[in-house]
Amino acid sequence: MSSSSKRQLPNVNLESTEKIRHLNTALINTENNLRHAQQNFELLKQIQQPASTSLLDTFRNNGTTNDGVLTSNDSHFDHESVATSSRRASSSSHQRSSSSKGVRFNDDVHGRSLQNLNQDIQSLSTEHGRLKHELSKATSSKHQREAPHIHDSDDEEVNDSFLARNDPLVEEIVQSRLDRRLQEIEREIKRDKDQQQQGDVRALVNELQLQRKLTTPTLNEEDKIFQARLLLAESNKQMYESQLLSTKRQLEESELNKTLLAQQVTQLKDQLMKSEFDRDKYPRDDELLLATDRRRRTEPDRQHDFLLQQQMMFSKSATLNELVTFKKELEKSERQREQLSDHLEILVKKCDEKDKLVAKTLLELKEITDNCDTFERQNTKLQRDLTLALEKLEEMTQEAERYAQESVDCQKQLADSEQKRDEFKIQAQETVKQWKAKVKKLEKDVDRHKFGSTQVLERNEQLVKDMETTKTQNISLREQVAKLEFDLNEAQATQNRLEEHFKRNENDANQFRILRSSHETEISTFKSTINELEHQLSTYRQRHSQLEKEKQHSQQLLQDELNHRSNLESKLKQAEQDIEAMNTSRSQFQQHIIELENERMDFLQKIKEVEFERDSLSIQYHSISKTLNDEKTKFQTKLASIESDYDELKRKLDTSKMEYTRGMKSFQVEYENKIETLKLQLSDEKARIGIYQRHESENKKDLERLQEKAMKYEDEATQAQITKLTVEAANEKNQNIRKEKDYQHSLHTVYNDITYCTECLSTDSDEPFIIDSPSGIRDDVETWLTKVKARLAWLKQELEIRQQHENKLRHDLNNALLDGEADRKYFAAELAKREVIIDDLAREKHNQKDFEREASDRMRVLQSQLSRVEGHSLKELERAKQLQNNDLQIEYDKRRALTEDEKDRINDRYRQ
């Protein structure tokens, strides 16, 4: 600036002077604004409290108005905007006063930013003064050079306007510096605005969280504890933090133990507290109503109370009163805890007494259940014996049916064997007839051949005459040979068929032998089973009589059990009346009786569970009493520590009277936070007590409802068991009657099968069974057994007769088969001989043809000789020819004729 002041400054026009004038006015306004900001900052530094946010807001609003002044080049300060912004800031400060933690931290941040801004403003003011001094220096030197006759004026505005009118360089420098500095100020103000917005957002978030925590006190305990921890960490009070943590832990443990105790006591022993709860019903209901009224307070009322508390906090007497009230509330809570512990001890004693009564009743019920179990075991044993007897009876009836079916099958097989035997007999007769017819035919052929041999001589004489007839005879002989061949083939086929038939007969005979042996074994087994059946019938009669006696005995036992049950029910009713006399133990007795009646089979296990739960309850009671004593001691220590802290605070308040404006407010803030946390804890404890009382009333209602249901279920269960026992007895009786009927029916079917077998066999037997008048099985058992034995004896005799007859038939069949085999061999030999004869006849036929051909040749030779030789007569030629033919016929007859011995043997065989 010194170099610029030495330089010759040119003249400027009116526009530059106007700009400089406006610039000077702006600088004056900025000085005024900076002075006002400096005053505000000093006030902010003096007052360190939550209300400082309102001053900060006013300053920031002033900054925004100043920014507007700088940009619009407005000359006057907007007081109305400042007032409105201050009102707005005060309202926001009232809203943020509920969350003192966030406001304090934001105030610290804004305080640092304001210190920086103050430093910048001071530097700006010093620079502005220096610039102003240099400008005045430069203008004064120039004025002395150019116009020595003009004196310096006292008015700064005239000198500045005059100098500025002649110095454009100064105008540029000042304008650039001012623009640069104003930009820096704008950036600072924008940064402060952003920080203020962030702080407002954080304060709003804290307000919302606090409101949510206040509306839901059961869910915001951890947040409140966290807030208390932050406040304690801010105030560097580690001792209070550890104490609060320990109290929180103890409260949580006591709450858990109390909830466990409440659940278990309500499950097993809360019914004993009915009368006491009835006595304390009305005051507890009043407490519950008060608690619900406190919980149902609206949010505006809470905010109003909070504002009143904040206003009262600024006075020392209010804090002292709050501490005294807090101490009284702590003492009251300790007294309530002691009363609760005494009340719990009384309840535990009553529970022990009721446990003794329950144990006594449990022993009685145990004896009753043991008796019931013994009766049930006896009943099940009787039922098992009945089922075994009935199963054996069913097995015997099944065996009798099986034997009857086997006897029917044997009869069917015997009938089939007899039918086959008749068929074989008929077939054998037919074959014998066929063989006899064939033998007769062969005899006729033999007789015919005999007669032909006797007449050979006569025919030899006529052979020459009957040459033509011989041809016809040869043709007939050929036909007979073909017939004989056909007969031989048929005989061979019939022989093969007979062989196959004989083989089948042999197989059938073997099968008959096997069947016979099997029938004999079956008959023997059937006899043994009949004897066993007779023995078992006698045993079953005895067993049936025993079962009837046992049944009567079981019915008597059931009647005794029902009487005993009715006696037990009367005893239970008497016990209920006694329990009604004792108002405290009625519901528990009824509950245990219902449980024991419904769950008799699981009774021992439940007794063990109850004993285990009783031990656990006693252990829990001791642990709870210990925890309560520990809590009491800890609360006492805490109260002593709080009293000592109170004394320290009082001493500090006495010593810090001179520094009241600064120190007292900070102490008030700290102790307000502590009192708030402790009040919150007390309110939480009261809310927990109200919740416990509400749970107790709900448990009472549940117990009454369960008691009514238990009485209803007990009546239904007893009625259902009685009906079930009556139905089971009726079913067992019906089953016994049904099984007895089935047994009689099975015996009747066996008797009918035996009678049917005897009737079927008596129709074909030589000595039929004499059938008496039919009598039922239910009339007389001895007569029925005699009839069955008679029928079985007749069946045995008939089977032996049939077996003998079958053996005889088998012997005859074997003899017939042997004779047939011998005949077969004989006829085979005869057929072989006939085949030899047929072969010889074929050869002779061939020779005869040769002989005829030779004879024809000879005839031709003789005819030629007759023509040549005279003297030979025709008669001699014919005689020679006849002699030749006779010789041939004799040879042929010799070959064909049978010996007399063979003929006699064949005739003797077939005559037999």
UniProtKB/TrEMBL annotation:
Coiled-coil regions listed in the entry: 20-47, 237-271, 316-740
Keyword Coiled coil tagged: yes
CC terms in the record's Gene Ontology section: centriole; spindle pole
Biased composition (Basic and acidic residues): 143-152
Protein origin, superkingdom: Eukaryota
Region (Disordered): 66-107, 128-158
Keywords (A to Z) from UniProt: Coiled coil
Compositional bias ranges of the Low complexity kind: 85-100
The keyword NAD is assigned to this record: no
Record's signal peptide: none
Name of the protein in question: Uncharacterized protein
